[in-house]
Model the fold of this input.
Amino acid sequence: MKRAPFLGSALRLLFFAFFGVFTLSFCAGAQSGASATSATTRSSLTTELSATSESHIVIFHINDVHGKIDNFPKVAAILNAERKSGAEVFFFSAGDNFTGNPVVDLYDPPGEPMRELLDRLGLDVLSLGNHEFDYEMEPVRKLAARFRTVSANIEARPGTLPGLKPWVVLETKGGLKMVVFGLIQIEPENGLPSTHPDKVKDLRFSDPLVKALELKKLRASGQVLIGLTHIGYDQDLLLAKQMPEIDVIIGGHSHTRIDPAESVNGVLVTQTGGDNMFLGRVDLWLKNGRIIEKKGRLIDLSKMRDEDETLKALIAKFHQNPAFARILATAPLEISGRNTLGSLMTDSIRQTQGLDIAFQNNGGIRLNRLPLSITLKDAYTLDPFGNQIVQIAMTLTEIRGLIASSFEKRNEIDLQVSGITYVVLTDEAKKIKEIKLRNPDGSPLTEGRTYKVGLSSYIVSSYGFEHKDPGRSLQTTTADALIRYLQSGVDLGLYRDVRRAFSEKVSKSSQN
Done:
């Protein structure tokens, strides 16, 4: 009963507001010589009235798609249905759209299927991820030229990325303003994103969390402030704690699935996981230009049945590359798991190049399993980066330094290996106490010898380790070595639950 007077007052206010706008419109129509100033005044009044009413904004978002385009017809169907409902709908990408699917990566020009599909999906803004740079700079330029592209902690030399901005302002039909800024991750070792350093030599990067603090002023520029980040879940949490001015953080990079979205220090934090398996949805409700409620959830695309037939046909066309279907080898079992696949990949480097030892970082292994009939497409999907093989003459001390550097990045095994086995012995705090190296038969290696070691150009450029020999490129890629190895007739039955790198904790009694 207490709501009745409020309802009556609201109706009266609504009537007078409507009458006022109607009167302005009628008078403007009667005066055929109305000035441009009058038109601007009417538009401003209409925007003000709209901005002070209740509004509902829907933001769909993706991250770390890595070229996995097959679910985009389902994404399109969801977006189209919501747009037809009359809702204020936006579509964001939090980075890493490239690298991981040869249909996209080996297209001419590289990445064009992704750019075309995001365009048709109506992408409103994207934040650059580290793997956007895997193709060299030209595809990134094309991406930034086609879409609103943000990253506040990237500084580009003039002419390098003319479309890149630190933030953009999006306006709803009702006149509300959303300020969206971007951030990209950097590695603490070299201050660069996780891509080959040569690919970003014309760019400068700053610490994303330090840069974010300079953006607090953006709070006054609109009704909604959104961080579209590619810095990882843990960094997003730190960002939320140090910058409560943000309304929503839509993240990427760590492939973290957050469902429902979390509220951290009043900031809604969300991320979809990766590989286009889930579509994120954020709902914002505003009244008088202020957010009164916000929610986020994920949509499992495997459970969706509706598809956009136009996009489905376009994707089928992108897949029609007969070279991808060529069978390289047939295995008696599915080769699966990071350790086993890493062993296959390092064996291919070592044996095709006549090396003593070869290493492959876990981040460069992009499939969970290979099918029985392994195609060219499978090989490039497993190893999509196009990294060169670099040969370096290394002592065992230098090899231990490489392994230690890799382990300390994440406090776990990061390098798969061929030609040797190794064990990283740590204390309870995962501090390395010793690294034991053995030949495949278990015998010790020769301490005074120098070994021919094969590494990807990414490892050489991005991992901090001492090596007297600067190394030389063997003028072939890790993917090419894998293809040659698979075609050589090697017995793939050997790759069943193979593991060559181990981590063990040393008991306190054994340390004394």
